[in-house]
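ingest -> validate -> predict -> emit
validate: passed (alphabet ok, no gaps, 228 aa)
predict: started
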Amino acid sequence: MKQLSILIVLLTVFLAGCKSTPQPAVRLKPELLNENIRVGIYINEIAPATTSIQGADCLLCYGVAVAANSSLSSHLESLPTTDIESAKQVVYDGYKSKTQHVEFVNLSKDKLSKLKKFKGELGFAKKDYRSLKSELNIDVLVMLNIHAHGAHRMYSAYVPVTDPQGYVSGVIYSVDLETNQYLQFQRFNRKVLVEGEWDEPKQQFPGVTNAYYQAVEKVKLSLGNIFL
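emit:
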C-alpha cells in the first residue's frame, strides 16, 4: 500500500511537469504597433554582476564552487552597471520608432506579486496585467527582466567543467493589456568565451571582463533587432 502511494505521488509530479510547457518565442509583428499605441516599459532592478554557478547541485558542492570563484565574483560586483542598464534605452528607442507614446513605468515588487494568475493557454501572460491598462494609461506593457549577468561557470558536483564565460540572461516580453496576450516574447542567454587565460594575476580578470561586456553588447544587439 505504501509503495502504491509513493507511485501515485511520483506520477502526479510527473504529470504536473508535463503540463508546464515552456512559453515559445513570439516574434513582434510591426503591424501590431501604430503611432496611437501607448507603451509602458518596466525594467526590473538590476543587481550587480556576479558569477553564476550551475551544476554544483548539493549545498556543500555549491558552497565550495562559490568560494572557489569568490575573487572573480568580487571583481565583477565592483564593475559599474552602466552597460547593462543601457539595454533599457535600446528597448525604449525601438518602441519609439513605432509609436510616439512610450514611457518607462514604475511597478513595485509588492504590486507585481499581488497580480492575479491568468488562466490562459500558451501565448498569454501567466499574470493578469489587464488592470494596469487604466491604472497606467497604457495599451501595451513591456517587461525587460535581467535575470543574471557577469560570468557563467559549469560544475559537476565539486569539479569545474568549464572556465568562466561572459554571461547575460533574461527575458523581454510585451503584453496586450486588452487581452493579456503576448505580442512578443523572447528569452536571451548569451555566453562568450574568454580569449586567452581567464585567471590572470592581480585578480583583475581582464579576459572575463571583456567577455562579459561582449555578452552585454550581443544582448543589446538582439534587443535592437526585435524592431527590424
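The radius of gyration is 21 Å.
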